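pinging the channel bc i need a second pair of eyes. not urgent but kinda urgent?? the chain im working w is below, pasted from the shared doc
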Amino acid sequence: SLCPVTMTSAAIPVLRNEPWFETIRPLLYSSQYDETDGPLSSKTGMMVGMGMTEKQGGSDLRSNTARAAPLGVGGRGGAYRITGHKWFLSSPMSDAHLVLASHEEQFSCFFVPRWHPEGRKNTVCIQRAKDKMGNRSNASVEVEFQDAYGVLVGEPGRGIPTLVEMASYTRLDCVLGSTALLRQAVVQALHHARHRMAFGKLLVQQPLMRSVLADLALESEAATMLALRLARAFDESGSVLERAYRRVLTPASKFWVCKRTIEAAAECMEVWGGNGYIENGPMPRLLREAPVNSIWEGSGNVMCLDVLRALRREPDLAEALLASLRDDAAGEPLLERAVDELAGVFRLEGQELESSARFVAQQLVLLVQAGLLRRHSTTMAADAFVASRFSGAGGRVYGVTAGKVAPAAVIQRAWHT
């Protein structure tokens, strides 16, 4: 259910600038789900999906071949006839889709309703449903537009920036959704470890398992704080730092949190042992659901390159982020060194900088998470996070820790909060 809801929510900032927005405003803001298939005039609520991906392009939207031709004078708010193919159309049961198509050697965004204004079905023809690894309860399909009716949204030629604006909101929801999956997986692992006896003791009482569970709990708490801080940045406006969070930290967080959730879900499944691999339990579905957020709305490399793009185009955002990170790192040598190292990478250029894009995104997220934990969590949890993520003692798998990280206290906090 989250995919259709987030796309509908993300469509509102794009559509509310259109002069005809008031005709659908009550439907978009309705708290009632209307499952009927009919013209918008007969509905009590509506959902909006997206259609950008084509088989030859994927994330490379400028290689799209879908075409739009005006039915009249054209231009913003004008009617168009759309032809072409989309490899993925998300949530095909939606009442309308925002679709990218080219016309007059430029790309624009089009509002394509499920029903034609004349009261007949619009000619958006489903070719096949996608047989996905996960997210199976929510359909994705391949479609052909056969002279489908559409209305141009935004300025002509601004289709990609318009849909990128929409994508920034869906990327936020990818972070929120992955954070929720991560928390659910950790709770399932904690519950199992508190009840499963092995070798004469509960799993949660065994030192190595405690290290794994504590590391997972820190990951979940850090992701939760980051996701909520990002959401606040979308609600606020004005400061350069809030804009930097929206423009730079959102793609970085989508890259990091979504990937870490995949690893964490697999680790939590392993806490269950063989039972975790059985479909009767919850763990297989959590693991299958996790990768889609990492891929959808731009895979890891696309997100990291978008981070660099934002930093290059708007240097004030980089300055604001570094200043904030330095403030948050004050008094902690490990964090201060990490900020200095990141600032040095910011000064790289060309291929050297591009090849470091994943490092930039990772360090940005980890430093922000560390700062949030230092401000809002317990000293014990914050110190454990910093030590495990910045001292070099942590590993590429959960539970590789050294020193005093008080795993029992971290686990207790995760279970009761």
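so DSSP finds 13 helices and nine strands in the chain. and The first strand starts at residue 48 and ends at 51. — does that match what u expected or am i reading it wrong
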